[in-house]
Structures are given as structure tokens and as C-alpha cells.
Amino acid sequence: MTKVRHWLLISAVAASVSQALAAEGTGSSCPPPPPKAQEQASGKPLSQEAIEASAKKATLDGQQHATLEGDVKLRQGDRLVTADQAEVDRSKGQLRAKGQVSFQDGQLRLSSHTLEAHSDDDSAKLDTVQYQILGTNAHGKAKRMSLSKEKGFTLEGGSFTTCPADNPAWQLDADKIEADPNEGWGSAKGAKFRLFGVPVFYFPYLSFPINNERKSGLLYPTLGTSDKRGLEYAQPIYWNIAPNLDLTLTPRYMSERGTQLNTEFRYLYGEDRGELNLEYLPNDKKFNGDNSKRYLFNWQHNGRFSDHWRYNANYTTVSDDAYFVDLNSNRGSSTDTQIVRSGAIAYLSDDWNFTAEVKNFEVLGAYPDPYQAMPRLTLSREDKDFWEGLDFNFYSELTAFDNQDPTKPTAERLHIEPTLAFPLESPSGSLTTELKLYQTFYQQHDNSGQLADSVSRTLPQLRIYGQLNFERDMKLDGRNYRQTLEPQFQYLFIPKEDQSKIGLYDTSLLREDYHALFRNRRYSGLDRITDANQVTLGVTSRLFDQHNEERLRASLGEVLYLQDSEVGLDNTTGQVSRSTSALAGELDLRIDRSWGISGSMLFDTDSGQTRRGNLTVDYRVSDDKLLQFTHRYVRDITDNENIDQAGISGSWKLDEQWQVFASHYEDLRLHRTEETYAGFEYEACCFAVRMTVRRRLNPILSDGPEFTGQSTFDNSISLEFIFKGLGGGGSSGDKLLSKGLFSYREPYNLSY
């Protein structure tokens, strides 16, 4: 064995390529990629590692030159060269090998007929080479390959793919392919993209990622068709302006409407970050509104001055009420009836919190204009164990309400809300006594004269809340369980005060459920604080198995009204003139690790009718094998109209390549489909194809001209190709269900 020092073979140029492609993952049906070598045990730089050489025959010519023949092996650290014949010239820092030459360095594996390496510039050249990036399925061929520690590698007449070697599903052939790990991107000139051996695209120049670095270039297009827009083709173009700035331009062709340009500009400056989005369609050929120019503008910004001061802004505007319905933008939903615009600055500390906020709305469709907070100032403080076991909370708010409808009143409101609470807690239960004071001042401007110009409202509140914890051991079907019984009670007293001379600016009736039974408010906002003299009784029971995992949780409760509640939104809405509330219940049952049931209900004991209910049944084998059935019912949602809807959704992986997903929602009262969504996904080692079809109800937000001629349903089809190793990606089928009108809801899994 001959040892020759001070010779560097070939640099490891493919580390970043390996890491990026390995991060994409492969299916278990794919052949496992060749593993990467472990790090060197010695920790020495490779230039200082000794070279170990062996061969059947070795000829030495002085101290500078050696010729090796027959089963030649040269090793330096984790680098290995094998060949039929090799020459080492120390004076020139040169290695020449020929015959059946192979090379690997823990990151890259090469086979060739010839190899010439130079230690002075850490470079190498190979002819008629096959390469494999270890740790991934990326591989290819080249007529000639050049490697450099500084510049990466260059392939002439080469190919690149991540598919198995025999008959790859896709392959990139190019006159020249360059990959620079320092830049994180590769490029190809004169590239032909082949799909199953057939050339389908020609690119004079193409760039693709080899790690997580960003670079300007074309992103993957989307192709689809729909009743509203016809044939669609969108081609994103990415511009990496600077490390803290980038821009994505997306021309979008719609055969029924025209060509739209969408832009997304993102920026990052220190602690500030944000984005600007503009969507512009200069001439919508299918639009029936007053102006065929359609646009959307959105600005989002978040930042902070220091650890205490923060600020944010969110502003969106659209050209017309039907924009989201017609053009399917990512900046809103077709069911949106208003766009929220807000800006805020906040000071947060251990003691005091301050917020200054402005908020207004752009209404879409024939809906009333909501009030705008211009501005709202809040100041709050929370002190635990303030004095002798007492907790002290303070909340205050100053808000100016405005409305774009000149016939509606406007107002300024000052609200102060101090709270004293005395909590007692132990493992067996808790008891909290709370005293609160609502002090509110209004200055109102009402041209109709129905509201008072000035109002001062003072209301005290007494709330006593307690809970007890009991538990016992029990057996079911021979298995050990632990059951808890957690009764809860609350007494709430607020005196009555006439509030009919106060306008409704941010107040509505809150939704009722089991948890709402223990609230101290029945209305959102501050314009109505209901009178109360009531007791709430509730109980929750849980069942834990022998592994201390929660298998069952059931709750049932009701409010007992000791006197009528007369403060309502108007003469009828929100008033209570009965002895008890509706009976509220909730259930979460995990039958086993696959089956689960959850639901809630409101049952009116006076009329014997269910006022509200929902039920969900989940069958979940794994994250890619799941089914969900849902039903919801609401009585008298408006004008004696009921909601009665049922749906089923799921995603199921058939094998390592095929996955199907679908959802269907039906309106049982109107006997019509609300939305149907279905598709399949085929995923191989190196590519995936996804096809989806959707049929959904078209929202009609008004009877204006922009909604004239709208069909009842919109049908669409989309097709997407993803080529792994060229920057492709995307969500799996079950995640796509979340984009539906109703969406797949993640089940409440208790402890499982």
C-alpha cells in the first residue's frame, strides 16, 4: 500500500442538493435513495488527510509520480476512487484515472470512463459520466462533467431526474446544466422537458432550486376550467429583488373574461414586514356591472417599535360587490358580505395594556352598513392577588362610532369597568365572588330625535361562580376507568335600567350554547347590558381510561330565571319572560382511536322543540384515511326560516400512490346541493398529478346588475402537475378539503 500526502481529490459539491431533495420526501413504494456517508471521524480538513492507495501493480517514478494498475483503489477521508488504471503526479497535483472509473465522496457518486483531477484549483473533469446525488433519488447522465469546489458542477449534454433509472416519468435534457451549491440554484440551457419519454416543453433557459434559496424565474402554472371563467391558465413569475424584497407576477388568462394581472409584493425591514397585492382585469368581457375594469388592492403590515410597542394595518378594497364571486381570489371568499379594514397601535407591558384602533368595513351586496370605530382606544390592567387575596381588573374604552348612512345616528362612548374578585381554589373545587361596575357615558347625534343626546349609565354586577370536583373508579366491560363529576353553579345579579335611549352601535345577541350559560353577558358590545337575577346550574362528567386518556366528556346545563329580563335589543328581541332557559348540552365521545362522535344541542323544554343542534361523526384511521359526517340544525334563524344541512367529507389513501378525496353538502330543507368537491391524487417517487372537480352554489348578494344572469351553480375542473426536484409542492388531498365552502373540520380528539 502506498501513502501519498498533500493531495486533494474532488470537493464535496452536492451537499446542499442532497439536503433540499431529501426534504421533499419520497413514498414508501419508491426505491430508497443511496445513503449519504457519515461525517469524518478525525475532524481533519480533507487536504490534510492521508491518501491510501492499493492496486495489483504499482510503479513508482521517483517521489513525485506513481502508476497504479489493476483493481485500483484510492481513498482519502470519505472519498473513494476506483479504476482499472491511475496515475498520480504530486508535482502537478494531478490524478488521472481510466477504465471503469467510479468516485464517491459521501454526497455524490459518479461512474465514468476517465477522470482527471487537479488539487491546485480543486477541480475535476469526467467523460461519459453517470451521477447520483446520495441521500436523494436525483441522478442523471452527461457526455462531460466538470466539478469545482467554488462553482459546483457543470454537465454538457446532460440529463436530470428524480425518477427511478428505468424509463423515468419525467426527465430534463439540456445542452448544458450548471448547479452551484453556493447560490442554491441550478440552471439549464437548451432544455427539453420529457414526460414519459415524450418532449413536451422546450426552454431556452430554465432555472430550478437545489436548496431553500430563492431565485427569480418561472413557478409552476395552474390550468383549469369553470362555468364562470372558461378555460384558465395562470403563470406565476417570481422576482427575487433582494434578500428582504420579492415580487410574484401572475398573468392569468380566462377565456370567458380576459387576461388578468395579479401581483404580490413582499417586504421585510427589521421588525416590520408586510405585503402589497394588486389584481387587475382591464376589461371583463362577461361582467354586467357599470364598469368592466375590475380590481382588488390589499395591504397588510405588521411591525413593532420596541418590545412594548406594536402596530398593524390591513386594508382591502375591490372594484365591485361580485368580485370574489366571479374571480375566485385568494384574498377573500365568495360568501363574504363585507371587507374589514383596520389599523392599530398597541402598548403591552406587565401592568398596563393600551390599544388605539380604527376599523371600518366595505359592504358587499345589499346589506346594511355596519358602524365604524373611528377610533377605539382601550386601556386595561390585570392584577392577581392585588390585596389580601383579592384580584383587581380594570378595563376602559373610548370609541367614536360613525356610519356612511347619513340617516343613522353617530356617537362617542366612554366606558369604565373595574372588577374586584375573591377566588378560592383547591383540588376539590373553586369558588369565586366577583363585583363589577359598568360605568358608561354616551354623547349621541341623532337627527330623528329618538335617542337621548347624553346618557350616563351606572350598573353594578354581582357574580358568584363555583365548581366541585368528584371522581370515582369504575369498571366497564372488565376495563378500569376513572369517572369525574363536576357540578357548576353561578349566581348573577345586574339591576334593571332603561337603555332604550341608547343606539345599537356594536351590539347583537350572542350565540347560546353550554358555555354561554355561565357568561355574565347576553349581548356583544356595550350598548345593552341586560338585567339579570338568575342561577345557572350545570354539570360535566368525564371518563378516563387506564392510560389516563379522556374517552368521554358530557355536559348539561340550564339557567333558572328568578325574574324576567326586560332589557332587549328592541321591544321583543332578547327579552326573557320565562322561568328557565333552553336546556344546553355537549358531548364528545371517543369510541376508539378511529371512531368519534361530537355534538351539541339547545332543547326548548317549554315547546318540546330543538332550537339548535349539530352532530359530527368521525372515522379517522390516520391523517390520510378519514371520513366525517356532519349535520346541523337551527330553528327560526330568521323570519321562521330554518337551517337543516348535512354533509360528508373525507380523504382516503388507497395505496402508496393513489389518494381520493371528496365532500358533499346538502340543504335538506330546500332539497338542493350546496357544494360538491371531489378529486384524486397520484403520487409517484418523482412526480404527482392532482385533479379536482367542484360544483358549488353561487352566492347572490344583491339584485344589482353585477349579479344579473348569474347561474345557480358554478362548475369547475382543475388539473395540477408537480415534479419533485424542480421546486414542486402542494398540499395533499385531505388538506384541500379545507378550501371548500364548508370545509373539513378537524375533529376534537380529546386525549387521543
Q: Brief description of this entry?
A:
The chain has 752 residues and is mainly β. 3% of the residues lie in helices and 59% in strands.
What is the beta-strand fraction? over 45%
Find the CATH superfamily of the domain at 2-215. Answer: Lipopolysaccharide (LPS) transport protein A like domain
What would you call the structural class? mainly beta
Low-pLDDT runs: 1-28, 39-48
**Helix amount:** under 10%
CATH class of the domain at 2-215: Mainly Beta
Which word captures the global form? elongated
Mind explaining what this structure looks like?
With 752 residues, the chain is mostly beta strands. The protein is elongated, with a radius of gyration of 35 Å. The model is unreliable at 1-28 and 39-48 (pLDDT under 50). The chain is built from three helices and 42 strands. Among the domains are: 2-215, lipopolysaccharide transport protein A fold (Sandwich); 218-332, no CATH class; 582-752, no CATH class. The chain has a 26-stranded antiparallel barrel. A hairpin with a 5-residue loop joins strand 8 and strand 9. 3% of the residues lie in helices and 59% in strands.
